[in-house]
Automatic annotation (TrEMBL):
It comes from Paramuribaculum intestinale. It is an enzyme of class 4 (lyase). Its cofactor is pyridoxal 5'-phosphate. InterPro entries: Trp_synth_b-like, Trp_synth_b_CS, Trp_synth_beta/beta-like, TrpB-like_PALP, TrpB-like_PALP_sf. Keywords: Amino-acid biosynthesis, Aromatic amino acid biosynthesis, Lyase, Pyridoxal phosphate, Tryptophan biosynthesis. The modification N6-(pyridoxal phosphate)lysine is found at residue 114. This is Tryptophan synthase beta chain. It comes from the Bacteria. One of its GO terms (molecular function) is L-serine hydro-lyase (adding indole, L-tryptophan-forming) activity.
Length: 454
């Protein structure tokens, strides 16, 4: 067994193709539907909204590997390959026989994995002559990533930022503005969707669902403008598979193979990124790895949502997506892991979870911060509040391994660092944070409002 702390690849090891898990799935996800006709959508139906290549990738159920354009790989070189790290400090702190590894996606210039998809999405827009992009951002990480990616391809970007994060995370706004993006707090008065929500709920602090509605509305009403989404959709998960593909090579360098792969869960992109490449060996019958998505207890779509067609946004502008959902008008508590405050899960992950091919756990806010703090003390890196959910799930598994006296190999994705989230840490240290549990009644009432399509 190697004594190395980090396992590093060269630039030439950056994957040349993304891995599309759909062809290998025993049960494919149902198609997205046109909300008006309830008919399955084609890639062409999505062309008005997304870049054509993103739309084609979204609907690609046949190709297992999709080539990464040379221009995208060149920009990936700014920070990729990312390190795989053996968390010896955390192992020691927990006194566990488990071997814990993490893929460090926090080393990207914007501090999270989001740039993996922002770059190809901006690239495909540029390729077809698009000049403007709109998007939404929760905690600000996707907005920051797309701001940088847009700048690199000379595109103008407008970002709707969830209001609670706009005030809680002012430095993410500064980052976006530094890269030249326009940032608008959502709900705003600049769109119909925003005006409607502000009129009905003047103190509403916003949600990803609302911000998506506003960004989609602006994209559809601006010439030569496309919308880009930072999670949930198939093509976003696809782009994130560079994480797992690199990790696979690095685990090999470490002489280990994961028994358990863990990612935190907002809409599913970083979880998909670390998990899908390893999942293909389960599908091929070669391995029996356990996959765990860690979601916040205040927004438990995987553990307590229903499998149902639902909108990706609050106002109901997006196609109907087959998803595990809490209902598109679910309003999660204002937890500090803003990137995990989303009502539904992507179609692929929802299907995999429904078919028992992966697990999910929900983590209370205080447990996530206790885990984050333990990790920071043991490994030095201050994790993003979102990533802290993956760390908490990892700690649960490592302690279970200790109880059972088993040498489990655990791999988790460190989706981002928390250096711009110190307000949240301040509040945790001051004892000001609390857990937000959702009652069964709240979940049931919200889901009851959904139109039944399947
Ligand atoms: C956005 C974000 C998440 C959640 O989004 P997923 O699509 O589920 O990955 C998790 N961690 C960080 C650091 C993020 O920025």
């Amino acid at each position: 067994m190697s004594e190395s702390k980090k396992f590093l690849l060269q630039e030439c090891d950056i994957p040349t193709a993304w891995y599309n898990v759909i062809p290998a799935m025993p049960v494919k996800p149902r198609p997205m539907l046109n909300p008006a006709t309830k008919q399955p959508l084609t890639a062409e139906d999505l062309f008005p909204l997304f870049s054509e290549e993103a739309a084609r990738q979204e609907m690609n159920f046949t190709d297992s590997w999709i080539e990464i354009p040379e221009e995208v790989r060149d920009l990936y070189k700014i920070w990729r390959p990312t390190p795989l790290v053996r968390a010896r400090g955390l192992e020691k702190a927990l006194d566990t026989p488990a071997r814990i590894y993490f893929k460090n996606e926090s080393v990207s210039p914007v501090g999270s994995h989001k740039l993996n998809s922002a770059i190809p999405q901006a690239y495909y827009c540029k390729q077809q002559g698009v000049t403007n992009i709109t998007t939404e951002t929760g905690a600000g990480q996707w907005g920051a990533a797309l701001s940088l990616a847009s700048r690199m391809f000379g595109l103008e970007l407008a970002v709707y930022m969830v209001k609670i994060s706009y005030s809680q995370k002012p430095y993410r706004r500064s980052i976006m503005q530094t890269y030249g993006a326009e940032v608008i707090a959502s709900p705003s008065m600049s769109t119909k969707a925003g005006r409607k929500i502000i009129t009905e709920h003047p103190n509403y602090q916003g949600s990803l669902g609302t911000a998506i509605s506003e960004a989609v509305e602006l994209a559809m009403s601006t010439p030569n403008c496309k919308y880009a989404l930072g999670s949930v959709l198939n093509h976003v998960a696809l782009h994130q598979t560079v994480i797992g593909l690199e990790a696979e090579k690095q685990m090999e360098m470490a002489g280990d193979y994961p028994d358990i792969v863990i990612g935190c869960f907002g809409g599913g992109s970083n979880f998909a990124g670390i998990a899908f490449p390893f999942m293909r060996h389960n599908f091929a019958g070669e391995r029996d790895t356990t996959f765990i998505a860690a979601e916040p207890a205040s927004c438990p779509k995987l553990t307590r949502g229903v499998m149902q067609y639902d909108f990706g946004d609050e106002a109901g502008y997006t196609p109907l997506i087959p998803m595990l959902t809490l209902g598109h008008n679910f309003s999660p508590a204002n937890i500090h892991a803003g990137g995990l405050r989303y009502h539904g899960a992507g179609a692929v992950v929802s299907q995999l979870k429904n078919d028992g091919l992966m697990d999910a756990v929900d983590i209370p806010q205080l447990e996530s911060f206790a885990a984050a703090t333990a990790f920071a003390k043991a490994e030095g890196i201050i994790p993003a509040p979102e990533s802290a959910h993956a760390i908490a799930a990892t700690i649960r598994e490592a302690l279970k391994a200790k109880e059972e006296g088993r040498e489990k190999v655990i791999l988790f994705n460190l989706s981002g660092h928390g250096l711009i989230d110190m307000t949240a840490y301040d509040r945790y240290i001051a004892g000001d944070l609390s857990n937000h549990e959702v009652t069964d009644e709240e979940v049931a009432a919200n889901i009851a409002g959904l139109e039944k399509i399947i």
